[in-house]
Amino acid sequence: MMPNSVMHTESPCLIRLILVGFLAIMAVPASFAQETTADPAASDLTREMVLSPAAIDRRACKRPVIVEDIPYTWDQLERGTEPAWLAYTNGDYAASVPVFLRLAKVGHPIAQRLMGVVYYFGQGVPVDHRTSLVWFEKAANQGCFEAFAPTAQMYERGEGTPADPGKAYAWYNIAVAHLPQGRERQDMIERREAVAAALAPAQLEGAQKRSLQFVARPVVPPDIADLPEDFFTLP
Predict the structure, then answer these.
(1) Which string of DSSP letters, residue by residue, matches 166-207?
(2) Which of 35, 55, 115, 230 would suit a FRET pair with 7, their CA atoms being 20 to 30 Å apart?
(3) Sign for the pseudo-dihedral over CA of 197, 178, 21, 99
(4) Residue 129 belongs to a domain with what CATH number?
């Protein structure tokens, strides 16, 4: 069993960003309602991707990255993004998605997870499950708890990639290891075991080994001085 993540206190701003992420999945704006609910699998994913705030508050995507005892944070790069979050929650993807895509490209884990949502549902961009999976998995590899289950489910269902029950099992198992005892953990275990039924013993052993060896690799936030001069002004 992998150890649970270390508890830490999040800033009010980060908590708001996480809650906005929940809103993005739980309540897709009306302009996209027909597109996302017409496909039962998409509607199903909407429900399954969401874990309660009680489970998430101990496992936020973003935390300081320590390098040689020096903490690096995303705070400076997040300054001025409040209008983009407001635009996103109002369904104005033209004004918001480019902002978060820029942050995702330099490694911001919450922005990477959000890009997974954006490309899965086609929020201001064409639906692209392959790109969605890329962003979800980038966030998951950084230790972003909210990206574990979406990554597992896309591998399980073969969305954006050929179905890979081994990878699906591994990501489900990683998610299980980060959940406390309770209904949500049991639900995740049931999803993991459903995938396990499709694996041969050797495949299952390999998937278990990969999940137990998982180590989050957070991206070090870049120095603003190293970014292009127009990083904050590009549309």
Answers:
(1) HHHHHHHHHHHHTS-SSHHHHHHHHHHHHHHTTS-HHHHHHH
(2) 115
(3) negative
(4) 1.25.40
Nearest of 152, 166, 144, 155 to residue 217 by alpha carbon: 144
pLDDT of residue 110: 92
In a domain, 4, yes or no: no
Residue % of the chain over a pLDDT of 90: 60
Q: Is the pLDDT of residue 55 over 90?
A: no
Residue 234 resides in a domain: no
Long-range contacts from 6-10, C-beta under 8 angstroms, 24+ separation: 7/58, 8/58, 8/60, 8/63, 10/57, 10/60
Instruction: Flag whether 46 is in a domain.
Output: yes
Least Cα distance to 91 among 120, 121, 119, 124 occurs for 124
